[in-house]
Amino acid sequence: MVRDAASVGALKEALADRDREIRLVAGWGLANMGDAGSVDLLLRAADSQGWERIQATKNCMLLAERLLAAGKPADAARIYTHLKNTRKDPSERYIRDAAQKALLHSVQPGR
User: Fold this and answer.
1) DSSP string spanning 4-48?
2) In which domain, by residue range, is 64 found?
3) Which of 1, 10, 9, 69 is nearest to 34 (CA)?
4) CA geometry: angle 74, 76, 46, nearest 5 deg
5) What is the DSSP secondary-structure string of 57-111?
């Protein structure tokens, strides 16, 4: 898999595209690259509604995993904390639980 850091700017622009699928693919690309500068943009995208919310939340979880792997636990913690605090609907409990577990076991080991 190619993680072309030179394309970060274009992908960030694509997050504002009118086409939902383009926005989601751009979010996935940024998440998969582990671009810490995209945290706020991806969190904002994940606060949308419906199908886009689900997919953008998956992108946020992927970004958090990539950030942890890159030794950036504080950035990953921002994502997990946001998801834990904003997923209030009962149907999103699994996201809250996953974010809480990640905060306890991955971001803050030994707790």
Assistant:
1) -GGGHHHHHHHTT-SSHHHHHHHHHHHHHHT-GGGHHHHHHHHTS
2) 5-107
3) 69
4) 135
5) HHHHHHHHHHHHHTT-HHHHHHHHHHHHHH--SGGGHHHHHHHHHHIIIIISTT-
CATH number of 59's domain:
1.25.10
Residue 33's nearest CA partner among 61, 58, 57, 5 is 5
Residue 64 CA to residue 60 CA, distance in Å, equals: 6
Predicted confidence (pLDDT) per residue in 10-64, tens digit: 999 999 999 999 999 999 999 999 999 999 999 999 999 999 999 999 999 999 9
Identify which of 87, 74, 85, 71 has the alpha carbon closest to the alpha carbon of residue 39: 74
Indicate the residue type of 93. R
**Considering its fold, how many domains does the chain have in total?**
1
Q: Look-up: residue for tokens 């974010």?
A: 99
28, amino acid identity: W
Where on the phi/psi map is residue 108: left (φ > 0), alpha (ψ -120 to 50), or beta? beta
